[in-house]
Amino acid sequence: MANSTMVTEFLLMGFADKRQLRLLLSVLFLLMYLATLLGNLLIVSATTLDQNLHKPMYFFLRNLSILDMCYVSVTIPNACVNSLTDNRVISVTGCAAQIFLFIYCAFVELLFLTIMARDRYVAICQPLRYPVIMNHQFCVWTTLVSLLSGLIYAGVHTGNTFQLSFCQSNMVHQFFCDVPSLLSLSCSDTFNNFLLLIVSAILIGCGSFMFITVSYIYIFSTVLKFPTKERGKAFSTCVPHILVVSVFLSSSSCVYLRPSVASDILQGVILTVCYTIVPPFLNPIIYSLRNTQVKEAVRKVILRQYYSRN
Q1: Which residues of 270-304 are buried (b: 16+ CB within 10 A; e: fewer)?
Q2: 11: three-class secondary structure by DSSP
Q3: SS3 for 45-98, per residue?
Q4: Which residues, including other chains, have CB under 8 Å from residue 1's CB and lie 6 or more apart?
């Protein structure tokens, strides 16, 4: 079918139907959003200003924190404002921009998490070669490749989605624009779109999951050979990463691999909230606040800001 889009705007779904619950959830998510920005901004400041943290591990942590601030900003502020004002309208252009940015951030986030697993593997299993393998050039190039490949991946999915015609309902069953929700609204043949979505999700998601899993199999087999006192320190840098990867991959897989029409809408919203808010919110806590060096660097940043104002 030719691209003769009849829908000029979409209506987004709120957090809840009841006003009191909608306001409560909006305030809760807004507070989580502000806490996410503050926590990740502290991490970026600490890893930038403290010379002791100019290492590959903290280089990727800083990149992840910057990306998390962008990732959570694509959906949450707009969704909270819409729920608070009960204005759920979004233009087709705005919807396309939101889809592109969301897919881009999610894709790059997954690549960053995969690279961080590689970093932990080299640090624990090949410590003597760590400075050589995880050199500055490698860190910069992997970051650039992740960012550029994200543009291609997001552009392909966004372009394929908006080549379709939308002449049915304009009610998006999600609190932000995403590909599965829009495909269910199209009056065009969406088989190829669904096929591309599922195949790419399986290839990228499963590929990253397998790489991370194999990395941690080697890591755990190496850590078990450590003296008992050193095992706890090694595991403390790995377990948080595993938790965030598990939450991100499991919730996103449930959302994007489930049937778009038959699935429960509320269940989909809950799962989406899990991987849009929770990972960026937990990032400063589970990656950094458990780290003594980062704790000290964050404390210095806070004290510096405090004394500069007094």
Answers
A1: ebbbbbbbbbbbbbbebbbeebebbeebbeebeee
A2: strand
A3: HHHHHCHHHCCHHHHHHHHHHHHHHHHHHHHHHHHHHHHHHCCCEEEHHHHHHH
A4: 164, 165, 187, 188, 189
CB 61 within 8 A of CB 40: no
Q: What would you measure as the largest C-alpha separation in the chain, in angstroms?
A: 67
pLDDT digits (tens, 9 = 90+) for 119-161: 999 999 999 999 999 999 999 999 999 999 999 999 999 999 9
- Please, which pLDDT band fits residue 277 given cuts at 50, 70 and 90? confident
Residue 239 half-sphere exposure, CB side, CA atoms within 13 Å? 10
Which DSSP helix (H) or strand (E) runs through 10?
strand 9-12
Phi/psi zone of residue 90: left (φ > 0), alpha (ψ -120 to 50 degrees), beta? beta
What's the rounded Cα separation, in Å, for the pair 108 and 68?
10
Tokens standing for 125?
């299993």
**Cα–Cα distance for residue pair 6/169, rounded to 1 Å:** 10
Q: 298 near 42, Cβ under 8 Å?
A: yes
CA distance 192 to 182: 14
User: What Cα–Cα distance (Å) separates residue 296 from each residue in 41, 66, 209, 216, 230?
Assistant: 15, 20, 33, 28, 21
- Cα→Cα distances 104→40, 156, 206, 230, Å: 19, 11, 18, 38
What burial letters (b/e) apply to 244-254, b meaning 16+ CB within 10 Å? bbeebbebbbb
The model scores a pTM over 0.70: yes
Those residues with Cβ within 8 angstroms of residue 308's Cβ, 6 or more apart along the chain or in another chain? none
From its phi and psi, is residue 14 left (phi > 0), alpha (psi between -120 and 50) or beta?
beta
The CA-to-CA distance between both ends of the chain, in Å, stands at: 66
d(CA 22, CA 15): 6
**DSSP symbols for 156-172:** HHHHHHTTS---S--EE
